[in-house]
Amino acid sequence: MNPTSILGRYLTRQLILSFIAVLLMIVGVILMFEIIEQLRRTAERPDVDFMFILKMSFSKLPRTFEMVFPFVMMIAAMVTFWKVSRSNEFVIMRAAGVSIWGFLAPVLFAVFVVGMINIAIINPISSYLYEVHETMNYRFKTKNPKAVLFSDKGLWIREAGEDNTIRVLEAKSVRQENDVLLLRKVSVLELSENSKLLSRIEAYAAELRGDQMEMKSVKIFEAGKPTQKLSNYDYKTTLTIDRIKENFIDPEAISFWDLPETIKFYEQSGFSVVRHKMRYLSLWASPFLLMAMVLVAAVFALRGNTRRGGVMFMIVGGISTGFIVYFLSQVIYAFGINNYIPMTLAVWAPTLIITMISASLLLHIEGN
């Protein structure tokens, strides 16, 4: 069936309406429990007002929704298919010569478009709000309303230098003021590609603006040369405030569009990028996972026994399958992060398995 045909547009509209209804209901429940949890956490904190609680709850909401997004789509598809089956519209379509795959084609196309919109538009917004939530949570823990998402234990970070050299930067404390990053007790080690120490720079303080770091009270140590003492020293670096901040936040707080550049930067700097690559691959796979969940919904909802107890079978079977899929996908994802299996396999295996099993069952239903 053509997605732009009358029946295709009708099924797409029914799916979108069901998706919006389920989404609003689930988001409302999640938000209610999140506000209750934040009220519990802040019960003994008179310095935290209700507006802060609302900001914390709303900023975490997109991230929580992203986790349940496949289940929202599956439930919306089950509701849509159940309505079509209960009103005998599905039977009429089959009698008119429309196969089950022709029936599912416009629905799958609409779900794929929704998935692409999610990673292209919604994900950057969700990532930004998740970063806001992490920063607010950090301020709540440190009781500092101006704190930023940096560690109290200081900073250890590495970057790739010129001529295959490696620079390791350490700072005992880090603080951001507007667009300037203030560092205290800074030490920079420059190593060769064979990890041989070439030089060491020590500074009492430093200020990072853009890609320029101004060091103060500097000592430069090089093998075979006397120690240089400078009051000020301009240190050229590829690090920026955003790059350093990303060292302290989860890959989930980085936008889909920024992940490739972040992965490239970390690879050049010698950092592990497994979590970032897994995140990037999982975002690409998410539209296909949504389509697989729609196939699962079709297995349970596109049946002729919805008038004889089939509704209970659909609800229990669909929810149980959804939880099993979620559990197995998280286990396989953890295997990928720990390098037990290839990253591509860890990301795509759950989607492929669900798709193949669901397609096999649908072919059996089609043949009966």
Summary of the model, kept short:
The chain is an alpha+beta fold and about 375 residues long. The protein has helices spanning about 5-40, 50-85, 90-95, 100-140, 240-245, 260-270, 275-300, 310-335, 345-365; strands spanning about 155-160, 165-175, 180-190, 195-210, 210-220, 230-235.
Q: What are the SSEs and their pairings?
A:
Blueprint: H1 6-41, H2 50-86, H3 89-95, H4 100-142, E1 155-160, E2 166-177, E3 180-191, E4 197-209, E5 212-222, E6 228-236, H5 241-246, H6 259-269, H7 274-301, H8 310-337, H9 343-367
Antiparallel strand pairs: 1-2, 2-3, 3-4, 4-5, 5-6
Helix pairs in contact: 1-2, 1-4, 2-4, 2-7, 2-8, 4-7, 7-8, 7-9, 8-9
The multimeric state of the shown protein is single chain
Q: Which strand order spans the largest sheet, edge to edge or round the barrel? A: 1-2-3-4-5-6
How many structural domains are formed by the residues?
A: 2
pLDDT below 50 for ≥5 consecutive residues: which ranges? none
Mean pLDDT: 82
Helix content: 55-70%
Shape field: elongated
What is the count of DSSP helices, taking H or I runs of 4+ residues?
9
Secondary structure: number of strands? 6
What sequence of helices (H) and strands (E) makes up the elements?
HHHHEEEEEEHHHHH
State Rg.
27 Å
- The helix-and-strand class reads alpha+beta
- Gap between N and C termini, in Å? 21 Å
